[in-house]
UniProtKB/TrEMBL annotation:
Pfam families: MoaE
Protein's UniProt name: Molybdopterin biosynthesis MoaE protein
GO BP: any one term: Mo-molybdopterin cofactor biosynthetic process
Protein's organism: Brevibacterium casei S18
Amino acid sequence: MSVIRTGIVETPISTDELAPEVVTAASGASVTFSGIIRDHDSGRGVERLVYESHPLADQQLAEAAAAVARAHPEVRISVVHRVGELRIGDVALAAVVASAHRREAFAACAELIDEVKDKVAIWKHQYFSDGDDEWVGALE
């Protein structure tokens, strides 16, 4: 299993930062995922988000990545989630999965994102353009 990096950070993130440490000469495929802050949710305009994490979120993120790596031992993984105030267009979640073959890389990346959404205690506070706001839990 090869989990290269995981983390909960307060600074900007990108898959471009993660890829050089994940992709090797043995990699035939690299799949990236950028969870980008969009300007709408359920038909409502979104102005900004604030992400907060539980103190165990960093450990939970590492465990989620490790579970995917165990299920796909041929992949290399890095995944980072940003917390704090984010604006439209900012990246909240960045992941890179590399493998010798594309099918493994695609499958592992999809599973990784699902695991992060299902198992990591991160919540977002959405601020809407109509002045309303709401909390949304990653653990539903």
